[in-house]
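does this look right to u?? glutathione version
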Amino acid sequence: MKLIGGYGSPFVRRVAVSLNFLGFDWEQEAVSVFDSPDPVKKHNPLVRVPTLVLDDGEGLVESYAILDALDDMADDAKRLIPAGGAERRAVMQLTAVSTGTMDKAVWAYYEGRFHPAEKVHEPWVEHNDGQVMGGLGHLDVCAAKAGDGWLAGTGRISQADISATVAITFANRVRPHLNVMEKFGNLAALANRCEAMDEFSSVTP
Ligand SMILES: N[C@@H](CCC(=O)N[C@@H](CS)C(=O)NCC(=O)O)C(=O)O
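got this back:
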């Protein structure tokens, strides 16, 4: 299968890390939707990344839906989101906070990237940065409770750990003035543990 998009996108990266953990055979097509939309448009009417093209040519869009399909195709023992029950709910909720944090960091970053300087609305940037801090603060409390274990209390790494790690690493890169690694030391420790794993370090922007 082929993953379209660069690892600079946290949504692409969480899919890439998940593909590694799930053990799929895959390759990357690192296109930017802004510089060359055509390869994405062929498979995704929204022209967004990540887009995943399966071996038979079927295109999958939206990281949630892609990851759901991948878990469904993988061996049960490898699933990154438990199939049901309280563990599934915990993983889904922590993942939702992580992807919401990614959204907000992207929005704050895009405001400066896509608007001329005189049209950047600082209160909107600050609003989004505040939500980034809120999301990471929540994950930091959960990381403190998890200690040397995993965020959602699963016996092994789950989508919650993957997405939370990708979220703080991304926020640290695109919102450096927020000093998230210093402010959220528990989450930073979990992220450092994850980023040292091949599944993460092989897909670094
Ligand atoms: N909710 C989407 C978000 C994907 C997303 O925001 N992708 C960005 C790159 S980080 C993108 O394609 N931006 C181009 C655009 O939306 O026009 C997902 O989880 O896949």
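The chain has nine helices and four strands. idk if thats expected tbh
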